[in-house]
Amino acid sequence: MREKILTFIEKNSRVDLKDLAIMLGVDEAVVVNELAQMEAEHIICGYHTIIDWDKVGMEKVTAMIEVRVTPQRDMGFEKLAERIWNYPEVDSVYLISGGFDFMVTIEGKTLREVAQFVSEKLSTIDSVLSTKTNFILKKYKDHGTVIAERAKDERIQMLP
Amino acid sequence: MRDPLSKTIVTIEPSGIRKFFDIVSEMQDAISLGVGEPDFDTPWHIRDEAIYSLEKGRTFYTSNAGLKELKTEIANYLDRRFGMTYDYAKEMIVTVGGSEAIDIAMRAMLDPGDEVLIPQPSYVSYLPCAVLANGVPVIIELQAEHEFRLTAEQLEAAITPRTKLLVLPFPNNPTGAVMEREDLEKIAEVVIRHDLYVISDEIYAELTYLENHVSIASLPGMKERTILINGFSKAYAMTGWRLGYVCGPAAIIEQMLKIHQYAIMCAPTTSQYAAVDAMRNGDEDVRRMREEYDGRRRYVLHRFREMGLSCFEPFGAFYVFPCIQEFGMTSDEFANALLQAQKVAVVPGTAFGACGEGFVRISYAYSMEDLKRALDRIEAFINDFRAKNKE
To answer: Which of these, A120, B132, B138, B206, is most buried using a 10 Å CB contact count?
Structure first.
């Protein structure tokens, strides 16, 4: 049941719980309880909205920053990651395999703001060896959702 | 001038939903629940494989019966999913959709005057195909009280000394009815006793919501009497690719292959390469789509019951078939009134045979938002109608 609920709400977290219960063929109380339980267990970590900010006319700059670090004795990657994620400007932090260690995404209002954050905050952390900032030019798809206009239903409307 | 037309073709009726199609396509912001194909896009990895085959220049005819690679995959699939063994080399043809399979099966098996039993309501092709193959269609009217399953009694009652073929259209379009193993066992017993053959159209086999689909061909003594039809359209959302397949006894397949060879040559090559990938890597897509359909199915059924419409629970395909008799209109009048008043298009049950009277077909191959909007409108239509009747 959990897996089914999660599959549904992963794509549409705003689904009416009554409808969701009908679709799954269970009582609404079951869905409500499972959701509460999964929130408590931090299986469900949050409910977010995918926004095409360009359409609102809000200027936003997003950068993906590759960060190389030397993990410190007694500190490891966890502590370092925490130092990075504590900045509110930081949107996500991933530990990465390959040529660098962390992928950090940062959202700011302007290029300068992002650049400043990287040079003044991120690069100055003791264990950080180097950073490489990649600015995002256009977002096509996010969280499995295509940002561009939805395709129209092109099927023939009456078919036996 | 002489009459250019054959006497047979002019007896065949054009499709009954044409006029609705014309109205709907002219109407602003109408919602149609009249589509008989999946709303999903063909999974990308399947499309990608088709593109790759084009890049590789695989644009030639394939052998008449289809790519060996595809036929072996189909044989694997039938074994894996339904526990049936077919010899890909002798017992299988890849066809242009399930539709071609229906046509060539009837043409290969019927002599003038042979009777073909066609349970209705059912898909619109069986009857014309039987007529064009010089057969005599005999309709069996399925009953709502049996959840539109075919019963052995009904079958028995329709059999005459001229009966040769039974069409078994389950999971069913338009009713959504399924036949379970016990139902099929009873049918098989009658079929064997009367020495009949079966054309089992299982195009919706992957879309069942009760238990795994059972093919009549998998029952003892039935493989040698059954022409099994399936395809990629519904399970893999590949309607436009026009690709299906037919399996059956080698002696029948051999004759069907002649018609296919002379009339069609081979199924589209690009589609066949795409289908190889569907068979190899598509199980998860099918499962995901089936789960979505199932959720919508429950939702639509729930809404109809809330509206107080009588509707049996369909366990297959992507249709529900509610009864509209309480409104004192024919299916056609109901569909028309609903379209005019609330701009929702549904298909009258009579499009699938006269015994579809009193029912309409609702397709749930639509997004939840569309379904919700359409059902709200249907609810408003019904409430208006009931309020007016009270006055």
So the answer is: B206
